[in-house]
Amino acid sequence: MLESLQVVAGILLVFFLPGYTFVNLLFPRRNELDPEYDIVYRLALSMGLSIVIAIIIGFSLNAVSTAEQAYVRPGPLWIAFLSVTAVMFVLGWLRGAYPWMERIHPSLYRPAPPRKVGGVRISPERRKAEAGKLLIEQERLRKDLQTSLERSSTSNPQRKLYYRRRTDRLRERIEQIDRDLESMRSEERD
Question: Is the dihedral of CA 37, 179, 121, 108 positive or negative?
């Protein structure tokens, strides 16, 4: 039983974990590689990079080995793989790649670096604040639209014309807000 657990841990440590932590270090935000198949790309890159990291660790340990002391043995290999994986995990955590760490303790949360939109960095907090303002304005405009529709049923022709124009302007602004919110959602997915 213990040997089979060692085999599974060894396979994970050699063929997956170093590459996975390295990919998260390079691309800390979700859907950064691809909006639809991000997990598939992360898994494939993780396996490929893990093999590359394993080769580099093997060559490095062999290079520092001497005739009296060989370092390409299980003990030094475990230490090297665990050290490299831990260092990349910590660096990825500092870049905000692991938001689930907040569940362990709130002080462990690190935000991902802000996205660049048109060469300008927009933080996620700022984007959320702008979206919140737009949603509040949209709700207020919908109430005003409902009021204008109710008041447009008056018999006075000038008032009807006024409220029709007003409802048209309100609908245009609501549609503009819908487009802005949709573009924010699509940027968030990217």
Answer: negative
